[in-house]
Fold this sequence. Notes:
The chain contains ten helices and 16 strands. The protein is α+β, with helices and mostly antiparallel strands.
Amino acid sequence: MNVAVVMGGYSDESVISLRSGQLILNNLDRSKYTPFEVHILLIEWYCLIDGVKYPINKADFSFAKDGKVVKFDVISNTIHGTPGEDGHMQAYWELLEIPYTGCGFYQSSLTFNKRDTLSVLSKFEIPKAQSIYLSKGDAIDGKQVVEQLGMPFFVKPNQSGSSLGVSMVSNLEDFQKALDFAFAEDNDILIESYLNGREVSVGVIKYKGETKVMGITEILSQNNFFDYEAKYLGKSEEVTPANLSEEIKNRVEETSKKVYEALGMTGFSRTDFIIRNDIPHFIEINTNPGLSPQSIFPQQAAHLKMAMSDLLDNEINLALQRKPIWKK
């Protein structure tokens, strides 16, 4: 079975995606699958074989080599950010009727939009921070933000990953700088109240027909929060499994499953929470969690002694079972 391991993307997360793609290439069961390294970049789409680039035909997502057209039976999607985590590639593959791993195009688009995700989850009574939604050009008074949310508070791009464009504001003199930083990533932003508590990240998957929690990892950041440096440049300690009481552990697991199912997820995911007053508060969900050596999801798989090849096999089986929406 020909598997396109798709990596890259159009955002600053492309470097992390390339690392994740290599883990998948290294762990796919070669007795079942023939993997191909496919790069989706702003300047070009290509399949890389022995250092040679073979352009991807966007009409049917194939490529030609030695006069023969190579097509893919299934796609293993590991693009972080746009266009592989926000629904664009998923909708494209769906139209071409090529199975792909991860959640569907609607769920990808929904969960990449922080505001819309929070709106949906509010109907399921998932605890979360207070927030203000702002678009570029809107007037905003810092003093009113403090009155509503308190100090410090966070400023985040509405659609971005890997904590890109995120700032903690502890002094109103830094507010405009934080706004500019976030608006550089997206035209819409969220301003959220600060939750003082323990930060945990929870891997959740659909495994053999059931929603399964992979593990709970506590994040101990050397910075003010779990920013890009802490995630990828060694500025944090990650403890797997998190040292939680059985009661809080069960509460985190139940809330994680509830979020996963409420949003209609399938495949790999990683959900971040702040545990405040023993209650997990939702921060965000990642539907294409990082699989680089520094990433949390592989740590949790290793702790469970679950082979990555088995997890990838499960992902591909889920992809093959899903049909285009008009064929359901």
